Amino acid sequence: MYKRFIWRNLLLYTKDRLGIFFSFLGMFISLFIYIFFLRSNLIGEFKDIANISKFIDTWMVAGLISIVAVTSPLNAFVQKLEDMATNRLDDFIVNDNLQANKIDKLYTLTSIIEGTLSTMVFSIVCFTYLLIKYQFNVFDIRIIEVLLFNSFLVIVSSLIFSFITDFLKTTSSFSSLSAIVGTLAGFFSGTYIIYGELPKFMQNFLNIWPGYQIAAITREKLISGINVKIPLGTLVSLGVSFEYSKSMLITGTTCLVFIILILIKDRLKSFGAFNKG
After folding, report:
1. Three-state DSSP class for residue 18
2. What confidence tens digit (pLDDT) does each residue in 156-194 have?
3. Domain boundaries, the chain
4. What are the residue ranges of helices labelled H in the chain?
5. What is the pTM of this model?
C-alpha cells in the first residue's frame, strides 16, 4: 500500500517530461551562468596562482552540487498540493486506508528519492565537465563521499520542506516558495557570494546552516586532489571547511529538530489544531 503510493508519486514525476526538463534546466542554467559569466572574474582574483582555473571550477562545482541537494527535494511536494486541491488526499485516506500523517511521510520519502537522483545526475554532469576540461578524474572514492555528504543534505531539505509545505494551500504559494528557495540556496551555500565577503550576521547563520556546512566539506573533498598553493585563511574565506565532524553534527541536529517539529505538528493536527484546508 505504502510502496504503491510512493511508486505512484515517482511515476507522476517521471511522466511530467516538461516538469523534469525545466527542473534540470534550472540546475544547468546555474552551471552555464558560472562558466560564461562568473568564472573569469573569480579566476582573475587569483590569476598569479598555478592551477587556479582547475581550483575555481572545482570549487564552484562543489557549491552547485550542494545547491541542487537543497532545492531538488522541493519539487516532490508540488504533487502534495495538487492532491490536496483535487481532494485526492481524502480518497487515499478513505479508499486506501492511509492515515493523513503517514501520507505526509510518504511525500517526504518521495522527496528524498527524487532529490537524491537529481543530485546524482547533476554531480555526474559536473564531474564529467572537470574530466573533459582538465583530465581531473573524481570518479573514484570522492564521488561516493560527495554523494554521501549531499544525500544527508537532501534528507534535511526534505524534512524542512515537509514541515513548511504543510502550511501552504495552493500551487501559487508553492511557486513563490520555490522561487525564494532557488534564490537563497545559492547565497546560503556561500557560492554566489563567498563566505568571507558576507556580513558577520550572515556568517554566523551559515555556521549553523547545513546547506553551507555540506557545501564546505564537499569543496574540501574535491579540491584536495589539486596542487594549488592558497593560504588557509583564504580557503576559509572561500567557504572550504576541514571540520567534517562539526558539519555532520550540525546536519544531524537540524534533522532531529525538524523531525521533532513534524511530530509535534502531526500531534496537533490529530487534535484538530490545524485546518486541513
Report:
1. helix
2. 999 999 999 989 988 889 989 988 998 899 899 998 888
3. 2-270
4. 2-15, 17-33, 39-44, 52-71, 77-85, 88-95, 100-134, 141-165, 171-188, 200-206, 210-223, 232-237, 244-270
5. 0.90
